[in-house]
Amino acid sequence: xxxxxxxxxxxxxxxxxxxxxxxxxxxxxxxxxxxxxxxxxxxxxxxxxxxxxxxxxxxxxxxxxxxxxxxxxxxxxxxxxxxxxxxxxxxxxxxxxxxxxxxxxxxxxxxxxxxxxxxxxxxxxxxxxxxxxxxxxxxxxxxxxxxxxxxxxxxxxxxxxxxxxxxxxxxxxxxxxxxxxxxxxxxxxxxxxxxxxxxxxxxxxxxxxxxxxxxxxxxxxxxxxxxxxxxxxxxxxxxxxxxxxxxxxxxxxxxxxxxxxxxxxxxxxxxxxxxxxxxxxxxxxxxxxxxxxxxxxxxxxxxxxxxxxxxxxxxxxxxxxxxxxxxxxxxxxxxxxxxxxxxxxxxxxxxxxxxxxxxxxxxxxxxxxxxxxxxxxxxxxxxxxxxxxxxxxxxxxxxxxxxxxxxxxxxxxxxxxxxxxxxxxxxxxxxxxxxxxxxxxxxxx
Amino acid sequence: xxxxxxxxxxxxxxxxxxxxxxxxxxxxxxxxxxxxxxxxxxxxxxxxxxxxxxxxxxxxxxxxxxxxxxxxxxxxxxxxxxxxxxxxxxxxxxxxxxxxxxxxxxxxxxxxxxxxxxxxxxxxxxxxxxxxxxxxxxxxxxxxxxxxxxxxxxxxxxxxxxxxxxxxxxxxxxxxxxxxxxxxxxxxxxxxxxxxxxxxxxxxxxxxxxxxxxxxxxxxxxxxxxxxxxxxxxxxxxxxxxxxxxxxxxxxxxxxxxxxxxxxxxxxxxxxxxxxxxxxxxxxxxxxxxxxxxxxxxxxxxxxxxxxxxxxxxxxxxxxxxxxxxxxxxxxxxxxxxxxxxxxxxxxxxxxxxxxxxxxxxxx
Lengths: 445, 364
What we know:
The structure holds two protein chains of two kinds. Chain A is an alpha/beta fold. Chain A has a domain at 38-184 and 272-424: Alkaline Phosphatase, subunit A (3-Layer(aba) Sandwich). Chain A has helices at 30-33, 102-109, 129-137, 165-168, 186-194, 202-211, 220-229, 232-257, 276-292, 321-325, 331-356, 414-424, and strands at 13-16, 19-22, 42-47, 63-64, 82-89, 146-149, 158-160, 163-164, 173-175, 178-179, 298-302, 311-312, 317-320, 359-360, 363-364, 369-374, 390-393, 404-413. In chain A, the strands form six sheets. An eight-stranded mixed sheet of chain A has the order 4-18-5-17-16-3-11-6, with helices on both faces. Chain B is α/β, with parallel strands linked by helices. In chain B, helix 1 (30-44) packs parallel to helix 12, helix 4 (128-137) crosses helix 5 (153-159) and helix 5 packs across helix 8. The longest helix of chain B is centred in the first third of the chain and has 15 residues, at 30-44. Chain B is globular. The relative contact order of chain B is 0.17. At the A-B interface, strand 5, helix 2, strand 7 and strand 18 of A face strand 5, helix 4 and strand 13 of B.
């Protein structure tokens, strides 16, 4: 009997009854990859709004990371995989001559590096760096990019002093006038990643999900056939991968079951976990699966939007995040901001830990990624756009020396980081935004 | 003298006085140090604003002085932080400008430092080209001037930045350079330091350029003996300390950089007149050559001999001025009415800086 899996291509699928589940990177694929046996490098940007408690964020000295300040402490186990970059600046987030609107401006410029037009209807930004990368490397994957969020997708109206909600509610821009709204609903994201039918409403998708078995049940025959042909390492990898999909399905089912148990008046889209941590885990677990299966190599994740009023009752903070960020140096309010910042990094640490635990090639999924976590505002109380909180996780397939803080000169454009990351993704462009050059991610200042 | 502020257009709020970018050699040129003080004098009269201060060579001592001067002559509202000083990239020696460094390290009898600077390392400064680009973006069109009194390294780099040329055309009235000798003369150290940058500047800078040669500086020497006298109102005046360290108090100092700032802000000042148009070239050894041409975009300044006394009097009055009052912070406008979940403006007590301000004590 012939072995149909003998020459396993990089983009292979488990198939069955209208379902196609992409396979992760397996050792069996490497002969087919010949000279280019290295796993691909993935790029992700995670954005948190309203600034950070910088006094509990910045590491005191350049060089190898030791004990981390309070907000970063949840990431201690990942300090060897982390770069903290200092003094990066988004000049285009500043007022310049456009008056109030820092939240929208810094969000709109975060990945575009330009000053967006102040308007609620006649929006103008620029293609974002993630989309420049997606346009090139995305041809090799099922999805050129994925845009995710957890907060708000309104695209119209005034979200900040005369700036369109398009600026606060999107990170990715395909062109100057075409933002890419993030997917907020986990079920919709799951269906996008693994579904193959026509677009359905969230309620229809959820109903269908309740009525049927796991998506993996449809491909089980193919999976068994494949496992016979794989070596023990690949069998383990495949099992881990399918388990992770199953786990996502369980999380989705739990979220959908919780829809009847939500507090009255709570603004929670159908099928979305009410708990921030659960929602974050669900979304990031799907990013992990998408990365592992090479469904995409480019992700933007607007964790919450600039100016968000989101409360964090999960950790005993009923106040809105944005009002808290204007704490006027009130210690009680500042403490709450710090706790929100810590809560965010704790969720991030959980995800990155899972990425690191996912083996790939000679390393792990985190090694083969470049994951930027940061904000377009440093001091949320004063709306400052210099020394922006910026972390880069992963080694980009060996292109980055991690585990250190690098402080650049003041006013160094954030767009310099974007140019550098595009380089690492194999996409060389001459100019981007207000970049003045490229960063050395290896050297100390 | 002509008013420096441009009129408001279409009935809008009046524009602020012209913004001055100053990039100079504060490590070796006393006239550049005095020019910063003169610019403060113009600011105190409401005729100009210093929008950017940078040193033209890689010298931490000079950058420290620039930071001290920026603090001594503040330009931001109280509590609004400070403006980072600029410096070009390059190898920085730990012991550059030792006399200046020693002067800045002076202590009061009680041991407290006389001059405090936030600049300790290269990372405490900004690349001067990036800083100038960023500051120009915060200016109304046509409401900025640029003064160079040192090597052209930073301005040449600015010309190479993507989109900067268009911004210069939109924002800058003219560039005034206190370098060279005109119509011809000896080599200039400021030019010889970076000949390629000077060549690029004269060849590519997209606005009119006015050069202030050494002959202008020699025509009106600032009397060193009068220098400390005029600054005696402060017991610890950084300009006096710096000039003393640079040996300027024991001799009369050429004043090219002062003329450059004065002309930049008041191009119709009658003490100084312009040459015919032409083109300035740069020779390998740092000399400059002016070739008249009706289509040229360069001119050089000429001192009217009859106006020397008046000019010196203006210099001395402006240099000795006390710091201009800090601008008053205006409360930000209200956020858009009815905006859903509007992010809005920051609290009035923390108004959005329109320019690249850094919070006080904002080191990592």
